[in-house]
Amino acid sequence: MSRTVNVGRRKVLGVAGAGVLGASALVMGSAAPASAATAETWLDSLTGSGDEASVFQAAIDALGPNGGVIRVPAGTYYIGTTLALGSNVCLVGAGITATVLRDHANLGNNKMMTAIGSSGTRLRNIAIRDLTIRNGTAGVGTPTIGRDALRVEYVDGITLERVRVTEIQGLYGVSYVGSTGIVIRDCEFYRCAHTMVAVLIENDGVTVSGSTFDTVTNTVTTNTYTFMTGAELNNTGSFFVRNLLIENNVFLNNPRWEGVDCHGGENIVIRNNVIKNCKVGVALQHAHGYLADQSQEVLRNVLVADNIIEQGNGDNGQAGISVVGNVQRLSENIRIIGNNITGFTGQDACPGSITLYCVQHVWIEQNQVWDHGVYGVCFWHSVFGATIRSNYFFGANSTAAANATSAAIGVTNGGTFGVLVEDNTVDATAVNKTVNYFLRAFNQYESWQIRNNRILNVKQTNPYYNSSLLPVERTAIPTASLVQRYGDLVYNTSGSAGWVATAPKRGYGSLDTTTVVVKATIASGSDQMAIVAGGASDFRAVPPGMNITVAGAGPSGGLLSARVLEWNAPGTVTLDVSASTSVTAANVKYQGLTLAAV
226: closest CA among 208, 245, 205, 243? Predict the structure, then answer.
């Protein structure tokens, strides 16, 4: 039998909190209305033999709408019918491994638990703590649809804390739809057949912290996930995920696919995690065809910071961090900062430890890239407005280094404009890991700024593959007492600066200060300059970081001296100052090279 008592209001289910990134979503608020006491039920009649689902469900139902706490003693208990959780219910075991709920033969190919509301009648404030959930045996073959641990739909405030989800034979360990205030804290996910956690359509306010995700067993299905966001049906929902925080977790052993995968979404932070032995460490992907309004299928405002991402064994190694948008709808405002990425070989079509495809406004800064594939950073296609700053590239793995076109930074296709590459260091840790080039290009890139990089131990005398396609000039250092403020110092094998690449041929850092390459329109009081006509090139030759003058736009119709802060599609740039005078189709000139004494 079970016994129930009423206890004081101090026995609430959770602690009120704010949503991720300032979201208004709930994060496990108080368990019951303030006027109600909270019931506690001890399931001390459990025997640990046979199908005891009815005991659990009866206790849940008896709590009524005000809910309460159901305490499960240590032991292993078998569930033969899916348990349906209601509002304000907290299911608590005796410890993460002490209390085990697992599948009985009667359960068949069904879920262990559900918390299912609807868009019109939502559930609220549900928690599961201090126990293990097991459903089947995770195998290497195709997962058994339905044999999941927990399905959550339309719940405001649901917490998993110190819960172990293991041996999940189904498609998902835990999945969420249409919910807010989702918390996964200090949990363990171990051995699941396909996807450990799936945050599916229309979830807002998700925090995943202090948890371990270890071993996806499937070796047959390609798209297996340790953690993913996205959708499961076409043409449903109005958005993917919003306000997602993933921090201080460990993701291990998914050599078939990805450690963390976000298929669209907004306001996403992935920081301070350890990700090892996954084919792709962090995948930021565009998902197409899942929302009813496909214009809302966006991936934007993402921070990936201070993670340790290491390749392991198996067929992994495609990319440490991959950002993939869509040619019709670019991923945007992506920041990849302070990560330590080691050992990705760069297989398939993404030959880089960090790979960019169809992205605008992206910052890659202060990362350490070790033993990368053919490229450390790969501009795969269509990247607009990128900053590659203060990164360290410690050489390719020995196989990739042997590739004749290996480079710290590679550009494999066209359509990449407005890129600033500055203050990076290339220095291989061993001779057999030395890359051939600092930067490899295939097309004309006059809108690139390349300056202040320190290039040591590259194999080729000219560290720029197809340098004629890049905005660089090869120039000897004037004297030993001068350094170049803008451009790259390229070091010879003795460690001395051998020569300088100035950048670009026309523009900021160039010896040429007279060529008018663009014409622009800007209104008085505005910092938004539109490019209306090109000379030798167009707006693509005005990248971030460039110092320019605009004829007639300054005070009293004089020159406006400005610095380009950001490139904005299509054909406008943001300046660091506003115009004093309106001009139309005015000449734009670049400011030139400066040498400074040491």
Answer: 208
Using H for helix, E for strand and C for coil, what is the string for 491-556?
Answer: ECCCCCEEEEEECCCCCCCECCCCCEEEEEEECCCCCEEEEEEECCCCHHHCCCCCEEEECCCCHH
- State the Cα–Cα distance between residues 249 and 206, nearest whole angstrom: 14
Highest mean pLDDT among 165-169, 485-489, 505-509: 165-169
Tell me which residue of 57, 72, 6, 62 sits closest to 36, measured CA to CA: 6
Residue 516 burial (CB < 10 Å; 0-12/13-18/19+)? Answer: middle
Query: Mind listing the pLDDT tens digit for each residue in 331-359?
Result: 999 999 999 999 887 655 556 899 999 99
- Strands 583-590 and 547-550 turn out to be antiparallel
Residue keyed to tokens 């900062």 = 337
pTM of the model: 0.85
Contact 43, 71 (CB under 8 A): yes
Q: Three-class SS of residue 21?
A: helix
Q: Rounded mean pLDDT of the chain? A: 83
Specify whether the backbone of 517 is left (phi greater than 0), alpha (psi in -120 to 50) or beta: alpha
The answer to whether the beta carbons of residues 505 and 481 sit under 8 Å apart is no
Measured CA to CA in angstroms, residue 287 lies from 46, 180, 264 at distances of: 46, 21, 6
- Which region, left, alpha or beta, applies to residue 545 given φ > 0 means left and ψ of -120 to 50 means alpha? left
Q: How does pLDDT run across 369-423, given as a tens digit for each residue?
A: 999 888 999 988 888 889 999 999 999 888 888 888 899 998 887 678 778 888 8
pLDDT at 29 over 50: no
Q: Sign of dihedral through CA atoms 17, 241, 275, 411?
A: negative
Residue found by looking up tokens 């001068």 in the block:
482
Bigger pLDDT: 515 or 425?
425
Residue 596, SS3 per DSSP: strand
Per the model's pLDDT, the better-predicted residue between 145 and 4 turns out to be 145
Long-range contacts, 559-565 (Cβ 8 Å, 24+): 560/522, 561/591, 562/529
- DSSP letter for 18, please: P
- Look up residue 287 and give its two tokens: 């998902």
Whether the per-residue pLDDT at 470 is higher than 70: the answer is no
Q: How far is 376 from 409, CA to CA, in rounded Å? A: 6
CA pair distance 111, 103, nearest whole angstrom? 9
